Amino acid sequence: DIQMTQSPSTLSASVGDRVTLTCRASEFIGYWLAWYQQKPGKAPNLLIYEASTLESGVPSRFSGSASGTEFTLTISSLQPDDSATYYCQQYNSYSLTFGQGTKLEI
Amino acid sequence: EVQVVESGGGLVQPGGSLRLSCAASGFTFSDYFMDWVRQTPSKGLEWVGRSRSQLRSFTTQYAASVTGRFTISRDDSQNSLYLHMHSLNTEDTAVYYCARGPYCTSTKCDPSPFDLWGQGTRVTVSS
User: Fold this and answer.
1) B46 contacts in chain A (CB < 8 Å)
2) Cα–Cα dist B27/B31, whole Å
3) Chain B residues inside the 8 Å CB shell of A97
């Protein structure tokens, strides 16, 4: 299976900060990467797909990029509502895999 | 409203069986691959398996951790997805989510992530 490694595991930041979360794939997955936001007790919510395409309804302060097997999720100006755990997921292979998550504390 | 709703979770003894259901509404269920994903505090999110649409001959695929024990079925006439779980062990304790996967046109199914999730149903395997 393709391993997805996220860093950092936990990130503490302030309202208005710009933050970058990283996800690295163990092998080439093209642009078949998604980012999800999950709040406690809720299901994950799709933010970005194909590495950099914003899902409909997601605020424009979220953006994604890719370079080889490294992917980043950037939040340009943190809002209190962004406090959550963020997961990456590859959907390049038949066996889909998720990263272990980055918990973002505001 | 476009949604999927899981049901059927509960407490089951090790070695037991359980069937989860996922009821879909608000979209053309038969046009989509449908998946099960589970989540535990220790392992995080884990893909369990997939049911492909008729365009892909209703084929299924499973994670190695559940192959031979879990079976996914679907009933397009009822807009429903099922997860049949057998030989359950404590490591299967998790919240199980139903999630919508790739959409298929008449000729192709493009890769896509999970754009619709249910609220989850909790399965606890314990004696």
Assistant:
1) 98
2) 9
3) 47
